[in-house]
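User: What would this chain look like folded?
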Amino acid sequence: MIEIRLAKADLKHHWQQNSLFVLASSLMIAINYIFLSLMANHSLADSSYGKVIINLLALGKNFTLIVAIFFMFYANSFLLRQRDRDLGLYNMLGMTKNNLRQILLFEKLFLYLVSVLVGLILGTTFIKLAFIILRNLLNNYHLYSKFSLDQLMQTFVFFGGVFLLLFIYDCWRLRQLRPAALWQQAVQAEKEPQAKRLLGIGGLLILGCGYWLAIKTKPNMAGISNFMLAVILVVIGTYAVFTAGSILLLHLLKSKQNFYYQPEHFIGISGMLYRMKQNAAGLATICILCTTILVTLTSSVSLVAGQQQLLSSWNPFELMLTTKEPLNPSRVQQIAQRNQVKLKQNQQLQITSPIYGSFSRNGYFKSGMTSKASVSLSVITLGEFNRVQHQNVKLKANQVLVDSPAGQRLTQMVIKGKIYRTKGYINLKAGNVDHSIFQPVFLVVSSNKIARQISSSHWIYQSGLDVSGSAKNRQNLATQLQQTLQLDNGSFSYRPEMQKFLRATFGSLLFVGILISFALAITTALIIYYKQSAEGLSDQQRFKTMQQVGLSQKESRQAIYGQVLLVFMLPIVGAVINTVFALPALSSVLKIFSLYDGWLLLRVCVLTIAILLIGYLLVYSLTTKVYQRLVNRSN
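Assistant: Here's the prediction, encoded as C-alpha coordinates.
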Protein backbone atom coordinates (compact mmCIF):
# COMPACT_ATOMS: atom_id res chain seq x y z
CA MET A 1 0.00 0.00 0.00
CA ILE A 2 1.20 3.47 -0.84
CA GLU A 3 -0.04 4.72 2.55
CA ILE A 4 2.34 2.34 4.37
CA ARG A 5 5.29 3.44 2.18
CA LEU A 6 4.47 7.13 2.78
CA ALA A 7 4.10 6.56 6.53
CA LYS A 8 7.49 4.81 6.57
CA ALA A 9 9.09 7.62 4.56
CA ASP A 10 7.61 10.29 6.84
CA LEU A 11 8.83 8.52 9.98
CA LYS A 12 12.29 8.24 8.49
CA HIS A 13 12.30 11.87 7.35
CA HIS A 14 11.31 13.11 10.82
CA TRP A 15 13.30 10.45 12.67
CA GLN A 16 14.81 12.90 15.16
CA GLN A 17 11.46 14.23 16.42
CA ASN A 18 9.90 10.75 16.36
CA SER A 19 12.82 9.18 18.23
CA LEU A 20 12.40 11.75 21.02
CA PHE A 21 8.70 10.94 21.19
CA VAL A 22 9.45 7.20 21.34
CA LEU A 23 12.11 7.74 24.01
CA ALA A 24 9.78 9.79 26.22
CA SER A 25 6.85 7.41 25.74
CA SER A 26 9.05 4.38 26.48
CA LEU A 27 10.31 5.86 29.74
CA MET A 28 6.76 6.76 30.83
CA ILE A 29 5.61 3.22 29.98
CA ALA A 30 8.55 1.77 31.95
CA ILE A 31 7.78 3.88 35.04
CA ASN A 32 4.09 2.93 34.99
CA TYR A 33 4.97 -0.74 34.54
CA ILE A 34 7.24 -0.50 37.61
CA PHE A 35 4.39 1.00 39.64
CA LEU A 36 1.97 -1.74 38.53
CA SER A 37 4.50 -4.50 39.27
CA LEU A 38 5.19 -3.17 42.75
CA MET A 39 1.47 -2.83 43.53
CA ALA A 40 0.86 -6.47 42.50
CA ASN A 41 3.85 -7.86 44.40
CA HIS A 42 2.73 -10.31 47.10
CA SER A 43 5.85 -9.98 49.27
CA LEU A 44 5.28 -6.21 49.45
CA ALA A 45 1.55 -6.56 50.17
CA ASP A 46 2.22 -9.09 52.95
CA SER A 47 4.96 -6.98 54.60
CA SER A 48 4.44 -4.71 57.61
CA TYR A 49 2.04 -1.92 56.66
CA GLY A 50 1.88 -3.33 53.13
CA LYS A 51 -1.55 -1.81 52.52
CA VAL A 52 -0.20 1.66 53.34
CA ILE A 53 2.66 1.18 50.89
CA ILE A 54 0.35 -0.14 48.14
CA ASN A 55 -2.01 2.84 48.58
CA LEU A 56 0.87 5.31 48.28
CA LEU A 57 2.15 3.50 45.18
CA ALA A 58 -1.36 3.71 43.69
CA LEU A 59 -1.35 7.50 44.20
CA GLY A 60 2.04 7.73 42.51
CA LYS A 61 0.89 5.54 39.62
CA ASN A 62 -2.19 7.67 39.00
CA PHE A 63 -0.12 10.87 39.04
CA THR A 64 2.48 9.51 36.61
CA LEU A 65 -0.29 8.30 34.29
CA ILE A 66 -1.66 11.84 34.18
CA VAL A 67 1.84 13.20 33.49
CA ALA A 68 2.38 10.58 30.77
CA ILE A 69 -0.90 11.36 29.00
CA PHE A 70 -0.27 15.12 29.25
CA PHE A 71 3.24 14.81 27.82
CA MET A 72 2.27 12.47 25.00
CA PHE A 73 -0.46 14.86 23.83
CA TYR A 74 1.94 17.80 24.25
CA ALA A 75 4.67 16.13 22.19
CA ASN A 76 2.14 14.87 19.66
CA SER A 77 1.06 18.46 18.96
CA PHE A 78 4.64 19.28 17.90
CA LEU A 79 4.77 16.19 15.70
CA LEU A 80 1.54 17.26 14.02
CA ARG A 81 2.87 20.73 13.28
CA GLN A 82 5.93 19.20 11.62
CA ARG A 83 3.63 16.94 9.59
CA ASP A 84 1.36 19.74 8.30
CA ARG A 85 3.58 20.44 5.30
CA ASP A 86 3.71 16.76 4.27
CA LEU A 87 -0.04 16.26 4.67
CA GLY A 88 -0.76 19.42 2.73
CA LEU A 89 1.51 18.24 -0.10
CA TYR A 90 -0.15 14.81 -0.24
CA ASN A 91 -3.57 16.45 -0.43
CA MET A 92 -2.51 18.72 -3.29
CA LEU A 93 -1.25 15.63 -5.12
CA GLY A 94 -4.74 14.08 -4.97
CA MET A 95 -4.90 12.09 -1.73
CA THR A 96 -8.20 12.15 0.15
CA LYS A 97 -8.83 12.64 3.84
CA ASN A 98 -9.28 8.89 4.19
CA ASN A 99 -5.81 8.34 2.67
CA LEU A 100 -4.32 10.87 5.10
CA ARG A 101 -6.03 9.14 8.03
CA GLN A 102 -4.56 5.80 6.95
CA ILE A 103 -1.07 7.33 6.86
CA LEU A 104 -1.57 8.71 10.38
CA LEU A 105 -2.90 5.32 11.56
CA PHE A 106 0.15 3.41 10.29
CA GLU A 107 2.49 5.99 11.83
CA LYS A 108 0.75 5.82 15.22
CA LEU A 109 0.71 2.01 15.10
CA PHE A 110 4.45 1.89 14.45
CA LEU A 111 5.22 4.46 17.19
CA TYR A 112 3.00 2.55 19.62
CA LEU A 113 4.61 -0.84 18.99
CA VAL A 114 8.16 0.52 19.25
CA SER A 115 7.35 2.61 22.36
CA VAL A 116 5.65 -0.27 24.18
CA LEU A 117 8.36 -2.77 23.23
CA VAL A 118 11.20 -0.49 24.39
CA GLY A 119 9.24 0.67 27.47
CA LEU A 120 8.44 -2.85 28.65
CA ILE A 121 12.04 -3.97 28.08
CA LEU A 122 13.22 -1.01 30.20
CA GLY A 123 10.53 -1.68 32.80
CA THR A 124 11.33 -5.38 33.22
CA THR A 125 15.05 -4.52 33.36
CA PHE A 126 14.84 -1.75 35.95
CA ILE A 127 12.15 -3.33 38.16
CA LYS A 128 14.96 -5.13 40.04
CA LEU A 129 16.72 -1.81 40.66
CA ALA A 130 13.42 -0.34 41.90
CA PHE A 131 13.06 -3.24 44.37
CA ILE A 132 16.61 -2.72 45.64
CA ILE A 133 15.90 0.99 46.26
CA LEU A 134 12.55 0.24 47.93
CA ARG A 135 14.07 -2.52 50.09
CA ASN A 136 16.72 -0.12 51.37
CA LEU A 137 14.24 2.67 52.02
CA LEU A 138 11.92 0.31 53.94
CA ASN A 139 14.82 -1.59 55.54
CA ASN A 140 12.96 -4.77 54.56
CA TYR A 141 15.20 -7.32 52.87
CA HIS A 142 12.48 -9.97 52.56
CA LEU A 143 10.99 -8.28 49.49
CA TYR A 144 11.58 -9.99 46.18
CA SER A 145 10.64 -9.15 42.60
CA LYS A 146 8.61 -11.53 40.46
CA PHE A 147 7.71 -11.23 36.80
CA SER A 148 3.98 -10.95 36.15
CA LEU A 149 2.40 -11.19 32.71
CA ASP A 150 -0.81 -9.50 33.95
CA GLN A 151 0.94 -6.18 34.63
CA LEU A 152 2.69 -6.43 31.27
CA MET A 153 -0.65 -6.84 29.50
CA GLN A 154 -2.27 -4.04 31.56
CA THR A 155 0.48 -1.65 30.49
CA PHE A 156 0.25 -2.82 26.88
CA VAL A 157 -3.54 -2.31 26.77
CA PHE A 158 -3.62 1.00 28.65
CA PHE A 159 -1.04 2.72 26.48
CA GLY A 160 -2.71 1.21 23.44
CA GLY A 161 -5.75 3.23 24.54
CA VAL A 162 -3.61 6.37 24.91
CA PHE A 163 -2.22 5.99 21.37
CA LEU A 164 -5.75 5.38 20.10
CA LEU A 165 -6.79 8.71 21.68
CA LEU A 166 -3.82 10.38 19.98
CA PHE A 167 -4.94 8.97 16.64
CA ILE A 168 -8.53 10.11 17.23
CA TYR A 169 -7.21 13.60 18.08
CA ASP A 170 -5.12 13.63 14.89
CA CYS A 171 -8.20 12.67 12.82
CA TRP A 172 -10.33 15.29 14.56
CA ARG A 173 -7.71 17.94 13.86
CA LEU A 174 -7.53 16.81 10.23
CA ARG A 175 -11.32 17.09 9.99
CA GLN A 176 -11.32 20.59 11.47
CA LEU A 177 -8.82 21.87 8.92
CA ARG A 178 -8.95 22.09 5.16
CA PRO A 179 -6.19 19.67 4.12
CA ALA A 180 -5.33 21.79 1.11
CA ALA A 181 -4.52 24.66 3.47
CA LEU A 182 -2.13 22.59 5.61
CA TRP A 183 0.80 23.49 3.36
CA GLN A 184 0.25 27.20 3.84
CA GLN A 185 -0.34 26.70 7.58
CA ALA A 186 2.95 24.90 8.04
CA VAL A 187 4.93 27.74 6.52
CA GLN A 188 2.74 30.58 7.73
CA ALA A 189 4.69 33.07 9.83
CA GLU A 190 3.53 34.00 13.28
CA LYS A 191 2.25 37.53 13.75
CA GLU A 192 3.94 39.67 16.34
CA PRO A 193 1.87 39.22 19.53
CA GLN A 194 0.57 42.29 21.32
CA ALA A 195 1.30 42.78 24.99
CA LYS A 196 -1.80 42.01 27.06
CA ARG A 197 -1.40 44.27 30.07
CA LEU A 198 -4.67 43.28 31.72
CA LEU A 199 -3.73 39.60 31.51
CA GLY A 200 -0.32 40.37 32.94
CA ILE A 201 -1.71 42.42 35.83
CA GLY A 202 -4.38 39.80 36.50
CA GLY A 203 -1.76 37.07 36.44
CA LEU A 204 0.42 38.94 38.94
CA LEU A 205 -2.58 39.44 41.25
CA ILE A 206 -3.53 35.75 41.05
CA LEU A 207 0.08 34.73 41.61
CA GLY A 208 0.31 37.12 44.56
CA CYS A 209 -2.86 35.65 46.08
CA GLY A 210 -1.38 32.16 45.72
CA TYR A 211 1.85 33.26 47.43
CA TRP A 212 -0.09 34.99 50.21
CA LEU A 213 -2.18 31.86 50.87
CA ALA A 214 0.99 29.72 50.95
CA ILE A 215 2.63 32.05 53.47
CA LYS A 216 -0.50 32.16 55.65
CA THR A 217 -1.05 28.37 55.62
CA LYS A 218 -1.32 26.99 59.16
CA PRO A 219 -0.64 23.42 60.36
CA ASN A 220 -4.29 22.35 60.49
CA MET A 221 -6.86 20.72 58.22
CA ALA A 222 -7.92 24.09 56.80
CA GLY A 223 -4.25 24.72 55.99
CA ILE A 224 -4.17 21.72 53.64
CA SER A 225 -7.18 23.10 51.74
CA ASN A 226 -5.53 26.54 51.60
CA PHE A 227 -2.33 24.99 50.30
CA MET A 228 -4.21 23.17 47.51
CA LEU A 229 -5.99 26.42 46.59
CA ALA A 230 -2.62 28.21 46.60
CA VAL A 231 -1.24 25.57 44.20
CA ILE A 232 -4.13 26.13 41.78
CA LEU A 233 -3.72 29.92 41.92
CA VAL A 234 0.05 29.69 41.36
CA VAL A 235 -0.45 27.44 38.32
CA ILE A 236 -3.02 29.83 36.79
CA GLY A 237 -0.94 32.89 37.71
CA THR A 238 2.24 31.37 36.28
CA TYR A 239 0.60 30.70 32.90
CA ALA A 240 -0.90 34.21 32.82
CA VAL A 241 2.37 35.91 33.82
CA PHE A 242 4.43 33.92 31.31
CA THR A 243 1.89 34.53 28.54
CA ALA A 244 1.70 38.30 29.08
CA GLY A 245 4.90 38.99 31.05
CA SER A 246 7.27 37.33 28.59
CA ILE A 247 5.84 39.40 25.73
CA LEU A 248 6.05 42.58 27.83
CA LEU A 249 9.68 41.76 28.67
CA LEU A 250 10.60 41.23 25.03
CA HIS A 251 8.82 44.45 24.00
CA LEU A 252 10.74 46.27 26.75
CA LEU A 253 14.06 44.86 25.51
CA LYS A 254 13.09 45.76 21.94
CA SER A 255 12.41 49.37 22.98
CA LYS A 256 16.01 49.73 24.24
CA GLN A 257 17.68 50.43 20.92
CA ASN A 258 21.29 50.30 22.17
CA PHE A 259 20.62 46.79 23.48
CA TYR A 260 18.24 45.49 20.81
CA TYR A 261 20.23 46.45 17.68
CA GLN A 262 23.17 44.20 18.44
CA PRO A 263 23.37 40.97 16.42
CA GLU A 264 23.43 38.60 19.42
CA HIS A 265 20.37 40.33 20.94
CA PHE A 266 18.44 41.35 17.81
CA ILE A 267 18.22 37.83 16.37
CA GLY A 268 17.18 36.11 19.59
CA ILE A 269 14.64 38.71 20.76
CA SER A 270 13.00 39.17 17.36
CA GLY A 271 12.77 35.41 16.82
CA MET A 272 11.26 34.72 20.24
CA LEU A 273 8.87 37.65 20.05
CA TYR A 274 7.18 36.31 16.92
CA ARG A 275 6.87 32.82 18.45
CA MET A 276 6.08 33.81 22.02
CA LYS A 277 2.39 32.91 21.83
CA GLN A 278 3.30 29.23 21.64
CA ASN A 279 6.57 29.64 23.60
CA ALA A 280 4.89 31.21 26.62
CA ALA A 281 2.71 28.17 27.33
CA GLY A 282 5.74 25.90 26.96
CA LEU A 283 7.86 28.04 29.30
CA ALA A 284 5.07 28.14 31.89
CA THR A 285 4.70 24.35 31.65
CA ILE A 286 8.44 23.89 32.21
CA CYS A 287 8.27 26.26 35.19
CA ILE A 288 5.35 24.33 36.77
CA LEU A 289 7.05 20.98 36.17
CA CYS A 290 10.30 22.20 37.79
CA THR A 291 8.33 23.59 40.74
CA THR A 292 6.56 20.25 41.17
CA ILE A 293 9.90 18.41 41.16
CA LEU A 294 11.32 20.75 43.81
CA VAL A 295 8.25 20.57 46.07
CA THR A 296 7.89 16.79 45.71
CA LEU A 297 11.53 15.99 46.48
CA THR A 298 11.87 18.61 49.22
CA SER A 299 8.85 17.35 51.16
CA SER A 300 9.51 13.60 50.74
CA VAL A 301 13.25 13.83 51.52
CA SER A 302 12.51 16.04 54.56
CA LEU A 303 10.09 13.47 55.95
CA VAL A 304 12.63 10.64 55.60
CA ALA A 305 15.49 12.76 56.98
CA GLY A 306 13.37 13.93 59.93
CA GLN A 307 11.66 10.65 60.84
CA GLN A 308 14.04 10.06 63.77
CA GLN A 309 13.08 13.44 65.24
CA LEU A 310 9.42 12.58 64.75
CA LEU A 311 9.94 9.22 66.45
CA SER A 312 11.64 10.86 69.43
CA SER A 313 8.77 13.35 69.67
CA TRP A 314 6.05 10.68 69.58
CA ASN A 315 7.90 7.99 71.54
CA PRO A 316 10.40 9.54 73.98
CA PHE A 317 10.25 6.15 75.75
CA GLU A 318 10.23 2.75 74.10
CA LEU A 319 6.68 2.11 75.30
CA MET A 320 4.09 4.89 75.59
CA LEU A 321 0.72 4.17 77.22
CA THR A 322 -2.31 6.38 77.83
CA THR A 323 -4.68 5.00 80.48
CA LYS A 324 -7.66 6.21 82.51
CA GLU A 325 -6.20 4.75 85.70
CA PRO A 326 -2.58 4.78 86.95
CA LEU A 327 -0.51 1.77 85.96
CA ASN A 328 0.02 -0.92 88.58
CA PRO A 329 3.86 -1.19 88.81
CA SER A 330 3.81 -4.72 90.20
CA ARG A 331 1.51 -5.90 87.42
CA VAL A 332 3.78 -4.40 84.75
CA GLN A 333 6.80 -5.95 86.50
CA GLN A 334 5.17 -9.38 86.46
CA ILE A 335 4.49 -9.20 82.72
CA ALA A 336 8.09 -8.00 82.14
CA GLN A 337 9.56 -10.89 84.17
CA ARG A 338 7.33 -13.38 82.37
CA ASN A 339 8.85 -12.21 79.08
CA GLN A 340 12.41 -12.02 80.44
CA VAL A 341 12.53 -8.25 79.99
CA LYS A 342 14.02 -5.77 82.45
CA LEU A 343 12.44 -2.37 83.15
CA LYS A 344 15.14 0.31 82.90
CA GLN A 345 13.29 3.61 83.31
CA ASN A 346 9.70 4.68 83.65
CA GLN A 347 7.64 7.84 83.96
CA GLN A 348 3.97 8.36 84.73
CA LEU A 349 2.26 11.74 84.40
CA GLN A 350 -1.25 12.65 85.48
CA ILE A 351 -2.53 15.10 82.87
CA THR A 352 -5.88 16.35 81.65
CA SER A 353 -7.30 14.76 78.53
CA PRO A 354 -6.36 16.99 75.55
CA ILE A 355 -8.63 19.81 74.45
CA TYR A 356 -8.27 20.99 70.87
CA GLY A 357 -8.06 24.47 69.45
CA SER A 358 -5.56 27.06 68.24
CA PHE A 359 -3.41 29.86 69.62
CA SER A 360 -3.46 33.27 67.97
CA ARG A 361 -0.26 35.25 67.55
CA ASN A 362 -1.14 37.18 70.74
CA GLY A 363 -1.62 33.99 72.74
CA TYR A 364 -5.42 33.79 72.73
CA PHE A 365 -6.55 30.17 72.83
CA LYS A 366 -9.72 29.36 70.90
CA SER A 367 -10.99 25.90 71.74
CA GLY A 368 -13.07 23.69 69.48
CA MET A 369 -12.54 20.84 67.04
CA THR A 370 -12.74 22.98 63.90
CA SER A 371 -10.82 22.90 60.64
CA LYS A 372 -8.54 25.63 62.06
CA ALA A 373 -7.63 23.66 65.20
CA SER A 374 -3.90 22.91 65.32
CA VAL A 375 -3.09 22.33 69.01
CA SER A 376 -3.93 19.65 71.58
CA LEU A 377 -3.67 21.26 75.04
CA SER A 378 -3.11 19.24 78.25
CA VAL A 379 -2.54 20.51 81.80
CA ILE A 380 -0.33 19.16 84.61
CA THR A 381 -0.27 20.34 88.20
CA LEU A 382 2.94 21.72 89.69
CA GLY A 383 2.97 19.01 92.38
CA GLU A 384 2.89 16.30 89.72
CA PHE A 385 5.64 18.03 87.75
CA ASN A 386 7.92 18.36 90.80
CA ARG A 387 7.32 14.71 91.74
CA VAL A 388 8.25 13.39 88.31
CA GLN A 389 11.15 15.78 87.64
CA HIS A 390 12.47 15.66 91.25
CA GLN A 391 12.47 19.46 91.42
CA ASN A 392 11.04 22.10 93.71
CA VAL A 393 9.77 24.71 91.24
CA LYS A 394 7.31 27.34 92.51
CA LEU A 395 4.67 29.10 90.42
CA LYS A 396 2.24 31.93 91.04
CA ALA A 397 -1.43 31.46 90.21
CA ASN A 398 -1.02 33.28 86.86
CA GLN A 399 2.26 31.57 85.87
CA VAL A 400 2.76 28.46 83.73
CA LEU A 401 5.58 26.29 82.45
CA VAL A 402 5.23 25.30 78.80
CA ASP A 403 6.28 22.18 76.90
CA SER A 404 5.75 22.69 73.17
CA PRO A 405 7.64 20.27 70.87
CA ALA A 406 6.62 22.45 67.91
CA GLY A 407 8.65 25.30 69.41
CA GLN A 408 5.81 27.75 70.06
CA ARG A 409 7.10 30.63 72.19
CA LEU A 410 4.36 32.70 73.80
CA THR A 411 5.19 35.10 76.62
CA GLN A 412 1.59 34.99 77.78
CA MET A 413 -1.61 33.09 77.05
CA VAL A 414 -5.26 33.97 77.36
CA ILE A 415 -7.39 30.87 78.07
CA LYS A 416 -11.08 31.20 78.94
CA GLY A 417 -10.59 34.89 79.69
CA LYS A 418 -7.71 34.31 82.15
CA ILE A 419 -4.19 35.60 81.47
CA TYR A 420 -1.27 33.27 82.19
CA ARG A 421 2.35 34.33 81.89
CA THR A 422 5.06 31.93 80.76
CA LYS A 423 7.77 31.46 83.39
CA GLY A 424 9.84 28.98 81.40
CA TYR A 425 9.97 26.15 78.88
CA ILE A 426 10.44 22.49 79.76
CA ASN A 427 10.64 19.02 78.18
CA LEU A 428 8.28 16.55 79.85
CA LYS A 429 8.89 13.65 77.44
CA ALA A 430 5.13 13.17 77.33
CA GLY A 431 4.96 12.32 73.62
CA ASN A 432 1.90 12.86 71.44
CA VAL A 433 -1.02 11.77 73.62
CA ASP A 434 -3.48 10.74 70.91
CA HIS A 435 -0.94 10.22 68.11
CA SER A 436 -2.94 12.90 66.34
CA ILE A 437 -2.04 15.49 63.72
CA PHE A 438 -2.36 18.24 66.35
CA GLN A 439 0.71 19.82 67.91
CA PRO A 440 0.87 18.81 71.59
CA VAL A 441 1.21 21.61 74.16
CA PHE A 442 1.54 20.84 77.89
CA LEU A 443 1.03 23.48 80.59
CA VAL A 444 2.28 23.12 84.16
CA VAL A 445 0.06 25.20 86.49
CA SER A 446 0.30 26.04 90.18
CA SER A 447 -2.69 24.06 91.49
CA ASN A 448 -5.46 21.63 90.72
CA LYS A 449 -7.94 24.52 90.83
CA ILE A 450 -6.12 26.38 88.02
CA ALA A 451 -5.89 23.14 86.03
CA ARG A 452 -9.67 22.71 86.19
CA GLN A 453 -10.17 26.35 85.15
CA ILE A 454 -8.15 25.76 82.01
CA SER A 455 -9.49 22.28 81.20
CA SER A 456 -12.52 20.55 82.67
CA SER A 457 -11.78 17.29 80.80
CA HIS A 458 -11.10 14.12 82.78
CA TRP A 459 -7.68 13.12 84.10
CA ILE A 460 -5.63 10.54 82.23
CA TYR A 461 -2.23 8.95 82.83
CA GLN A 462 0.55 9.18 80.27
CA SER A 463 3.18 6.53 81.00
CA GLY A 464 6.54 5.85 79.40
CA LEU A 465 8.69 2.73 79.84
CA ASP A 466 12.20 1.90 78.68
CA VAL A 467 13.07 -1.80 78.69
CA SER A 468 16.01 -4.05 77.89
CA GLY A 469 16.02 -7.60 76.50
CA SER A 470 15.92 -9.37 73.18
CA ALA A 471 13.88 -7.83 70.37
CA LYS A 472 11.47 -10.77 70.38
CA ASN A 473 10.91 -10.59 74.14
CA ARG A 474 10.37 -6.83 74.05
CA GLN A 475 7.83 -7.29 71.24
CA ASN A 476 6.03 -9.96 73.30
CA LEU A 477 5.97 -7.61 76.31
CA ALA A 478 4.47 -4.82 74.19
CA THR A 479 1.79 -7.14 72.74
CA GLN A 480 0.81 -8.54 76.16
CA LEU A 481 0.70 -5.10 77.80
CA GLN A 482 -1.60 -3.76 75.10
CA GLN A 483 -3.87 -6.82 75.32
CA THR A 484 -3.92 -6.92 79.13
CA LEU A 485 -4.72 -3.22 79.49
CA GLN A 486 -7.10 -3.34 76.50
CA LEU A 487 -5.56 -0.30 74.82
CA ASP A 488 -6.23 0.71 71.22
CA ASN A 489 -3.48 1.90 68.89
CA GLY A 490 -4.23 5.53 69.74
CA SER A 491 -3.47 4.89 73.42
CA PHE A 492 -0.45 2.62 72.97
CA SER A 493 2.73 2.76 70.95
CA TYR A 494 5.88 0.67 70.78
CA ARG A 495 8.90 2.49 69.36
CA PRO A 496 10.23 -0.29 67.04
CA GLU A 497 6.71 -0.80 65.67
CA MET A 498 6.27 2.95 65.24
CA GLN A 499 9.64 3.05 63.49
CA LYS A 500 8.47 0.35 61.06
CA PHE A 501 5.32 2.35 60.35
CA LEU A 502 7.22 5.60 59.75
CA ARG A 503 9.81 3.87 57.58
CA ALA A 504 7.09 2.17 55.53
CA THR A 505 5.09 5.38 55.11
CA PHE A 506 7.90 7.90 54.56
CA GLY A 507 10.12 5.44 52.66
CA SER A 508 7.25 4.73 50.28
CA LEU A 509 6.55 8.46 49.93
CA LEU A 510 10.19 9.09 49.04
CA PHE A 511 10.22 6.19 46.56
CA VAL A 512 7.04 7.47 44.92
CA GLY A 513 8.45 11.01 45.00
CA ILE A 514 11.64 9.87 43.26
CA LEU A 515 9.73 8.07 40.50
CA ILE A 516 7.33 10.99 40.05
CA SER A 517 10.23 13.46 39.98
CA PHE A 518 12.03 11.26 37.46
CA ALA A 519 8.93 11.22 35.24
CA LEU A 520 8.59 15.00 35.57
CA ALA A 521 12.30 15.51 34.88
CA ILE A 522 12.03 13.38 31.72
CA THR A 523 8.98 15.35 30.67
CA THR A 524 10.67 18.68 31.36
CA ALA A 525 13.93 17.80 29.61
CA LEU A 526 12.26 16.35 26.53
CA ILE A 527 9.76 19.21 26.25
CA ILE A 528 12.70 21.61 26.22
CA TYR A 529 14.74 19.42 23.88
CA TYR A 530 11.82 18.79 21.54
CA LYS A 531 10.71 22.43 21.50
CA GLN A 532 14.20 23.68 20.78
CA SER A 533 14.71 21.03 18.08
CA ALA A 534 11.46 22.02 16.41
CA GLU A 535 12.41 25.70 16.56
CA GLY A 536 15.91 24.94 15.31
CA LEU A 537 14.40 23.29 12.22
CA SER A 538 12.09 26.25 11.64
CA ASP A 539 14.99 28.73 12.09
CA GLN A 540 17.26 27.10 9.50
CA GLN A 541 16.15 29.32 6.65
CA ARG A 542 16.18 32.49 8.78
CA PHE A 543 19.80 31.99 9.89
CA LYS A 544 20.85 30.95 6.41
CA THR A 545 19.48 34.20 4.98
CA MET A 546 21.18 36.30 7.67
CA GLN A 547 24.51 34.55 7.13
CA GLN A 548 24.21 35.21 3.40
CA VAL A 549 23.90 38.93 4.12
CA GLY A 550 26.92 39.06 6.44
CA LEU A 551 26.17 37.36 9.79
CA SER A 552 29.35 35.58 10.89
CA GLN A 553 29.49 32.14 12.49
CA LYS A 554 30.67 33.72 15.76
CA GLU A 555 27.72 36.14 15.82
CA SER A 556 25.42 33.27 14.94
CA ARG A 557 26.70 31.24 17.92
CA GLN A 558 26.32 34.23 20.25
CA ALA A 559 22.75 34.81 19.08
CA ILE A 560 21.88 31.15 19.56
CA TYR A 561 23.39 30.98 23.06
CA GLY A 562 21.65 34.21 24.04
CA GLN A 563 18.26 33.05 22.75
CA VAL A 564 18.43 29.62 24.37
CA LEU A 565 19.76 31.08 27.64
CA LEU A 566 16.85 33.51 27.91
CA VAL A 567 14.35 30.74 27.17
CA PHE A 568 16.01 28.52 29.78
CA MET A 569 16.48 30.98 32.63
CA LEU A 570 12.90 32.25 32.84
CA PRO A 571 11.32 28.90 33.86
CA ILE A 572 13.97 27.90 36.41
CA VAL A 573 13.94 31.36 38.03
CA GLY A 574 10.15 31.17 38.21
CA ALA A 575 10.33 27.66 39.70
CA VAL A 576 12.77 28.75 42.42
CA ILE A 577 10.56 31.75 43.31
CA ASN A 578 7.48 29.50 43.46
CA THR A 579 9.33 27.04 45.71
CA VAL A 580 10.58 29.75 48.07
CA PHE A 581 7.03 31.00 48.59
CA ALA A 582 5.84 27.39 49.02
CA LEU A 583 8.27 26.76 51.90
CA PRO A 584 6.02 28.24 54.66
CA ALA A 585 3.14 26.08 53.45
CA LEU A 586 5.39 23.00 53.25
CA SER A 587 6.62 23.70 56.78
CA SER A 588 3.03 23.84 58.04
CA VAL A 589 2.06 20.62 56.24
CA LEU A 590 5.13 18.84 57.66
CA LYS A 591 4.17 20.03 61.15
CA ILE A 592 0.96 18.01 60.74
CA PHE A 593 3.31 15.00 60.53
CA SER A 594 5.03 16.28 63.74
CA LEU A 595 8.15 17.38 61.85
CA TYR A 596 9.04 20.74 63.37
CA ASP A 597 12.62 21.25 62.15
CA GLY A 598 12.43 24.23 59.79
CA TRP A 599 16.21 24.28 59.23
CA LEU A 600 16.11 20.70 57.99
CA LEU A 601 13.44 21.66 55.44
CA LEU A 602 15.50 24.66 54.30
CA ARG A 603 18.70 22.59 53.89
CA VAL A 604 16.89 19.91 51.90
CA CYS A 605 15.27 22.59 49.71
CA VAL A 606 18.62 24.28 48.93
CA LEU A 607 20.21 20.91 48.10
CA THR A 608 17.27 19.95 45.85
CA ILE A 609 17.45 23.28 44.00
CA ALA A 610 21.21 22.82 43.49
CA ILE A 611 20.75 19.29 42.04
CA LEU A 612 17.92 20.42 39.75
CA LEU A 613 19.96 23.41 38.59
CA ILE A 614 22.92 21.16 37.67
CA GLY A 615 20.65 18.89 35.64
CA TYR A 616 18.94 21.90 34.10
CA LEU A 617 22.27 23.39 32.97
CA LEU A 618 23.28 20.05 31.44
CA VAL A 619 20.07 20.06 29.40
CA TYR A 620 20.81 23.70 28.46
CA SER A 621 24.25 22.74 27.17
CA LEU A 622 22.88 19.79 25.19
CA THR A 623 19.96 21.77 23.78
CA THR A 624 22.15 24.64 22.65
CA LYS A 625 24.41 22.29 20.70
CA VAL A 626 21.44 20.54 19.09
CA TYR A 627 19.81 23.86 18.18
CA GLN A 628 23.05 25.18 16.70
CA ARG A 629 23.61 22.00 14.68
CA LEU A 630 20.07 22.13 13.29
CA VAL A 631 20.31 25.82 12.40
CA ASN A 632 23.62 25.37 10.60
CA ARG A 633 22.66 22.09 8.89
CA SER A 634 21.66 23.78 5.63
CA ASN A 635 25.01 25.56 5.53
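The two ends are 36 Å apart (CA to CA). If you want, I can go into more detail on any region.
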